[in-house]
Design goal:
single chain; 56% helix; 219 residues; alpha+beta
Length: 219
Amino acid sequence: MKPQLFAHPFSSYCQKVLVAIYENGISFDYRMLSPEESGNIEEWQSLWPIKRFPMLKEDGNTVMEATIIIEYLMLHHPGPVRLIPQDPDAALRTRMMDRFFDNYVMTPMQKVVFNQIRPEADRDPYGVKEAKQMLDDAYAWLDGVVAKTEWAAGDTFSLADCAACPSLFYADWVHPIPETLPNTRAYRARLLARPSFARAVDEGRPYRSFFPLGAPDRD
């Protein structure tokens, strides 16, 4: 049987995995997590009571967390694009950049989004201010990194760029990357032009009305 991905096309972490899948042309069954697919939701929740997606299921294995799913796919469904280099030092840098995007771009971006979903009385303006400051710091540091390389961890597309795709895509909606950081802005544009991510973005396009801050009329 093909691997089954429990996911939603507008989810940032699901897009991270989808980019890796599309890069290597992996055949899979898309188990959509939506109200119309209650059976998928019930099975997902029974296997992963933490209730976070994406989740991968194959041959009795259940794999959680986007980075681990990508590493699993590399092991069991290798393709032409090696997303983690063989060289140990290069692999370490790739994994570090993957954590950078998840922890210092994706996490503060989601903090701002989730704050908007809360009842107004429970919102956290100070927390949002901190999150936006972290995004500013991350954008500025990244500008120096991608001034020297085409992709986040070097000259080849990798796991780090799979993480960067949805991170920078949504973060720029939440807290725009300043024009004073042309390298970060150009890197985001390169990610959007990558066919694997362009496909993921298009698949999520019908759900933009659900973005709680209002999706901008671009991208």
